[in-house]
Every structure is written in structure tokens, then in C-alpha cells.
């Protein structure tokens, strides 16, 4: 499998899991956390997919397309491990995190703190959609649809 195949599978899984939450009307009340704005493609998809929500968006810098830059008051700039601490207890409906690097040793470090942050920001019954596994006792891993490649993207519900 080429890196292009892997990328396409990852993006397909990301989009389809977000759409599944919409189509099955699964999200409880609450804001949506976008952990890693990047180019803003996912942010652009989520604001259309979940209209009427507040989005709080994290990144160390703004490098998004100009059409996908969140309002200043919803943009949290800095190292997510530190900045997101202020959002523990936000009772979020959804945390989406796309901050994997493809380097196992770097991702292992992120996976040591991201699960706790995601669980801490979510309300009970809220969902996490993540490119990295979120191993945490309060996050129940849910099955993903059969057409998605296992291990490309993960879906969790906070207990
Ligand atoms: C893969 S990109 C996200 C792509 C995004 N889903 C999109 O639609 O374009 C990951 C982003 O997360 C940011 N990021 C990764 N780790 C971070 C960290 N520890 N603190 C702050 N930002 C981080 C990077 O700067 C990058 O912009």
C-alpha cells in the first residue's frame, strides 16, 4: 500500500466516521473540539456537518486556507498538551483529533497525553474521533463500519 493509499483511507475513515455521527444523530449537546486545525479541511467539513455548534480549535500555528480560519475567540494557539488543559471540563459533544505524524516514536508520546485530554474535555456520552488510538478507561472504543480499514481511524464514546 502506498502512502497515497494510506492517506486516502485515513481521510475516508475520518469523513465517514464524522458523517456516521451526523446520520445517526448521536451527538449530545455541547461544543466540538477540533484538535489540530491544519489546512482546515476537516474544520470546513465539520462546520457544515454539525451546524449550530460552537467549535473550539487547537493548533500551534494557523496554516489553514483563508476560508477555513475559525473566529479568533474560538482559536487556541500553542502546544495542545498545554493549551487544552484549560478546556478540561468543557462538556464537549465531540473531540476530533488528527495530530498523528506517521512516526511511531513521536506518536507514542502524543498517545501518552492525548487520551486523558480527550476524555477530560468530553461530556459523558460524547464522542471522540481520532487518527491515533485513545487508550483511556473512560473511553469505550466503538466498532467502525466494515468498509473502513481497521486501524486507520478510531471512534470512542465517553462512558
Ligand atoms: C494533520 S494536521 C491536521 C489536518 C486537518 N485535519 C485538516 O483538515 O487540514 C495536524 C495539525 O495539528 C497540529 N499539531 C500537531 N501536534 C500538535 C501539538 N502537539 N500542539 C499543537 N498543534 C499540533 C499541526 O501543527 C498541524 O497543523
TrEMBL record:
Record-level GO BP terms:
methylation
The alphabetical list of record keywords is: Methyltransferase, Transferase
Asked if the keyword Hydrolase belongs to this entry, the reply reads no
GO MF annotation: an example: methyltransferase activity
Classify the source by domain of life: Bacteria
Q: What is this protein called?
A: Class I SAM-dependent methyltransferase
Q: What is the lineage of its organism?
A: Bacteria, Pseudomonadati, Pseudomonadota, Alphaproteobacteria, Hyphomicrobiales
Amino acid at each position: 500500500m502506498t502512502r497515497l493509499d494510506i492517506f486516502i483511507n485515513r481521510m475516508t475513515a475520518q469523513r465517514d466516521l464524522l458523517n456516521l455521527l451526523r446520520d445517526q444523530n448521536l451527538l449530545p449537546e455541547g461544543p466540538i473540539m477540533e484538535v489540530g486545525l491544519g489546512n482546515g479541511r476537516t474544520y470546513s467539513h465539520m462546520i457544515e456537518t454539525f451546524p449550530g455548534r460552537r467549535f473550539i480549535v487547537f493548533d500551534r500555528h494557523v496554516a489553514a486556507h483563508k476560508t477555513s480560519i475559525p473566529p479568533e475567540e474560538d482559536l487556541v494557539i500553542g502546544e495542545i498538551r498545554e493549551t487544552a488543559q484549560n478546556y478540561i471540563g468543557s462538556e464537549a459533544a465531540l473531540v476530533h483529533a488528527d495530530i498523528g505524524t506517521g512516526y511511531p516514536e513521536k506518536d507514542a508520546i502524543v498517545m501518552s497525553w492525548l487520551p486523558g485530554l480527550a476524555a477530560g474535555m468530553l461530556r459523558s456520552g460524547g464522542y471522540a474521533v481520532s487518527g491515533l488510538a485513545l487508550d483511556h478507561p473512560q473511553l469505550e472504543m466503538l466498532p467502525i463500519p466494515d468498509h473502513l480499514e481497521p486501524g486507520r481511524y478510531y471512534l470512542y464514546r465517553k462512558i
